[in-house]
Amino acid sequence: MEDFEYKYGSCPLYYTISTLEGKWKWIILWRLYEAEVIRYNKLKETLKPIAHKTLSKELKELESSNLIHREQYNEIPPKVEYSLTEEGKTLVPILKLMSQWGEKHIAK
Q1: Which residues face 71 on adjacent strands?
Q2: Burial status of residue 20 (CB atoms within 10 A of its CB: 0-12, 13-18, 19 or more)
Q3: What's the pTM value of the predicted model, to 2 decimals?
Q4: b vs e for 54-74, b when ≥16 Cβ sit within 10 Å of the residue's Cβ?
Q5: What are the chain's domains?
Q6: pLDDT tens digits, residue range 57-103?
């Protein structure tokens, strides 16, 4: 956080946008909200046409921002599940508003 403030100041909107930038992060958060807990392959299926590399990168960034939780089970085949953290759940009202806005304006 200190590095961010040093570079960009203390604008909360800029912080939010820089943390959640890109077209996939909001959609990933929405899918995790809908599913509560979801495995990697199932998540990837719901996000066509996202590339494996892009999804992995976005998930790592969301995890490092403490917005999602990654649970890895040491079994064969490997099993990894994702869910929203408590901090990630604080974005749900925003996600719902974004969805409502989209529903209202998608036909235009």
Answers
A1: 81
A2: middle
A3: 0.88
A4: ebeebbebbeeeebbbeeeee
A5: 2-105 (1.10.10.10)
A6: 999 999 999 999 999 998 888 899 999 999 999 999 999 999 999 99
